[in-house]
Design goal:
The structure is a single chain. By secondary structure, this protein is an all-alpha fold. It has one domain. It has 18 helices and no strands. The longest helix is centred in the first third of the chain and has 29 residues. The N and C termini lie far apart (60 Å). It is a multi-pass membrane protein. Its main location: membrane. Pfam families: SLC35F (PF06027).
């Protein structure tokens, strides 16, 4: 009897340390969790769409990453920024810019430069390095969330992240066995540094996204991202890619690829805040780890990649880690009540028909 009591106490302490003591299976595996998993994989599929279009653009000799980003930001500008312009009172765009313009400028700058840095990294380092180092965004984001959003993670969340990273390791191992090590090795230190820089910038951008959509509104985040993203990417486009755009022989197929890329990115940016508000930016980044796998599965049919069973193992392991992370909520300060009502009043019927890291360029160029 005493042994059973001691064993129960030990189990109770372990459960309390992991954050499991107040949960049973019925409270963990809910429809909300299933919806979160499905929505996370929809984000990965959208990134896969950008990856396929990027691969075909690369085969066609098109090297205009900033133009591609500019099109996405311009679409956000034409929809969400326009909605902000039609608002009155404190929700009007001029009022927002007067009080918080510099915050949204930094957010847009971080997002644009994160996309550009990871694309440039492929000129200097290999695909394997990018896939491994890009995961650095997750611990950085967890640290920033703890410091600025006061999010408290439990032991089970760190275990879930470790499981997801093991899945990434299996994916990279499959790439090595299949002989897929695209990219360059002309300056590995510079390339790896650019990947780490992009991971930090993505973490900053994702942190700003989570704070804005949970405390303000999804439309405000997307409107400001469209405004400042368009301005910043437009300047860089004029400086860096004007010559490339001018000499390019444009045809209908190229235009179709640009349209596919822009629409997938627009849907990704529009849909991601919805998932972030339901979960967290960290959880979304964990779900995006499967984007490379979806791209590889498409590559098996479109680009004749070599199949490996490790890809299936990787997908299962990453998905299991994502489910584990979302099964147990983190502790953070609740957002103001007005954020909920702001979202409902901000979105028009046309926006509800649109599915609402920024890590899309990594998966897009990984093909």
């Amino acid at each position: 009897m005493m042994e059973e009591i001691t064993e129960d106490r030990l189990c109770g302490k372990c459960k309390a340390a992991c954050g499991l003591h107040s949960y049973d299976l019925r409270s963990i595996f809910t429809w909300r969790l299933l919806k979160t998993v499905v929505m996370g994989q929809v984000l990965s599929l959208l990134i896969c769409g950008t990856a396929v279009s990027c691969e075909y653009l690369a085969v066609s000799g098109v090297r205009t990453p900033m133009l591609q980003s500019f099109l996405n930001y311009a679409l956000l500008l034409l929809t969400y920024t326009f909605i902000l312009c039609t608002r009155k009172g404190d929700s009007n765009i001029l009022k927002m810019l007067k009080n918080k313009w510099w915050k949204y400028l930094l957010m847009g700058l971080a997002d644009v430069e994160a996309n550009y840095a990871v694309v440039k990294a492929y000129q200097f380092t290999t695909l394997t390095s990018v896939q491994l180092l890009d995961c650095f965004v997750i611990p950085v984001l967890m640290l920033l969330s703890r410091l600025f959003l006061k999010t408290r993670y439990r032991l089970v969340h760190f275990v879930a992240v470790a499981v997801c990273l093991l899945g990434v390791g299996a994916m990279v191992g499959a790439d090595i066995l299949a002989g897929r090590n695209e990219g360059s090795a002309s300056n590995v230190i510079l390339g790896d540094g650019l990947v780490l820089l992009s991971a930090v910038l993505y973490a900053v951008s994702n942190l700003c996204q989570e704070h804005t959509v949970k405390n303000q509104s999804r439309v405000e985040f997307l409107g400001m991202m469209g405004l400042f993203g368009t301005l910043i990417s437009g300047v860089q486009l004029a400086v860096l890619e004007t010559h490339e755009v001018a000499i390019r022989n444009w045809d209908g197929f190229i235009f179709m690829l640009f349209a596919l890329y822009a629409l997938c990115m627009y849907a990704l940016y529009s849909f991601m805040p919805v998932v972030v508000k339901m979960t967290s930016a960290t959880a979304v980044n964990l779900s995006l780890l499967t984007a490379d796998l979806f791209s590889l599965f498409c590559g098996l049919f479109l680009f004749h990649y070599q199949f490996s069973a490790l890809y299936i193992v990787s997908f299962i392991v990453i998905t299991a880690g994502f489910i584990l992370f979302n099964a147990f909520p983190t502790n953070s300060a609740p957002p103001p009540n007005r954020a909920e009502s702001d979202d409902h009043t901000a979105a028009s019927p046309s926006l509800h028909s649109l599915p609402a890291e920024s890590q899309m360029v990594t998966a897009a160029t990984a093909l």
